[in-house]
Amino acid sequence: MPHEVFHYPTKESLIKRAQELGVHIPIAADAAVLGRPLTTGCVTLKNRMGTAPMEGADSLPNGAPSAYTVRRYARQAAGGSAVIWFEAISIVPEGRSSQTQLLLTEDTLEPWKKLVEEVRRAAAESTGQDVYLIMQANHSGRYSNPGNRPAPVIAYRNPYLEQYRAADDSCIIADDELKKLEETFGNAAYLAKKAGFDAIDIKSCHGYLLAELLSAYLRPGPYGGSFENRTRLLRNGIAAAKAYESASFQVTARLGIYDGYPYPYGFGVSEGSGEKVDLAEPINLVRELKERSGLSMIGLTMGNPYATTHITRPFDHGKYVPDEHPLVGIGRMIQGIGEVKRKVPGMTVFASAPSYLRQYADLYAAGAIEEGDCDGMLFGRMAFANPFFAKNVLEAGRIDPKKVCVTCGSCGDLIRAHLPTGCVIREPEVFRPFYLEYKKSAKEQPPNFRG
């Protein structure tokens, strides 16, 4: 099933190609279901669309939001999405993915309060309604790059990942440091609540520290080996954050349910299954997060954008050519999320990665909801290309086909270059100068580099 670029003039041609590949892609007749409200816990969201966490690489040096950050989120809020699931925000300086990654501490709290106020103002002025704001709390782990200098913090040695980014035994984080991080997530919840967010996400996906621990089968001690141990930091981090939960502030998580690597180096597989998806443990984890940890809502995703990008977000152009068709990746994502959703009834689930489908992304999201694969959909690259995509759907009935993401990978290049990130195609007057700066300064990478 070789890789192909997007070339489907009608939804029927898209469905036909998926069928030829043996893949089911849910496509609804219309996008009406996306405008329906969604109640989760004690919260009712105004529609089923949200903006997914996409790093903007535009913080100030101390991690506070810059004018670019405020502009980006204010535009998303004005765009009509019910949920803005903020990008990965570091909870400790040493866990930042770059000097331009956002950081929430006591020192940056006041700028965050102002950003939240501005975002809510933009939503009210544009839509007459509020918007639900989720702060994503993260430690970059293996991808920590404070000061733009690699300083990996790893859970265990992984040869599949170390071919792209070097690490050694000295990088393995100690158990006592992991124990301290549990309370740090609690402090992050305290700060997020003070900043005015509606919720905090204890992030466990995309190869970052908490996600890597989920596949730490070979790690000794209380944070490795057994399922109970490998999920300990996530569960205890959530428990610490829950101390600040209230009717107006909840705790959630974004969870990676499949990494794309065989056992014992990936989550969502089993011993002897190779790279074949086995969701027994992810289903068990989501069930425990609902029943033991008390979560009512979760975002689900797959892959590692540094190494298995085609699994996380299928694309036309990127750092490598995948050995599978993008529609296979779309099918894997939604089928996996749907399987988890059905096995854990009562958990509100937001799905991911619709942007590859361009002008059919809204019908895909609606189809996934109608077929019971998820309750809502998060749009990432699409929100860069057109932050008003949700308003288009709500007011015109469909997404604007002239403003969709074309999955060219340019926004990813900007993120990796630590430059303010947005859509080079749709907003060239803002982001093309940064892209030209990236092209000018880019150094040749090793042939197998996927970062």
- Compute the number of helices: 16
**Count of β-strands:** 10
Radius of gyration: 20 Å
Beta-strand content: 5-15%
Topology as a string of helices (H) and strands (E): HEEEHEHEHHEHHHEHEHHEHEHHHH
Average pLDDT confidence is 96
Q: Determine the fraction of residues in helical runs and give it as a percent range.
A: 25-40%
Q: What's the arrangement of strands in the largest beta sheet?
A: 3-4-5-6-7-8-9-10
Distance between the termini: 24 Å
Poorly predicted residue ranges: 444-451
Largest sheet: 8 strands, parallel, barrel
Shape: globular
Structural category is: alpha/beta
Could you explain the architecture of this structure?
This protein has 451 residues and is of the alpha/beta class. It is built from 16 helices and ten strands. The strands form two sheets. Strands 3-4-5-6-7-8-9-10 form an eight-stranded parallel barrel, surrounded by six helices. The longest helix has 21 residues, at 175-195. It starts with 10 loop residues before the first helix and ends in a 10-residue tail after the last helix. The model is unreliable at 444-451 (pLDDT under 50).
Descriptive tags:
alpha/beta, disordered C terminus, 10 strands
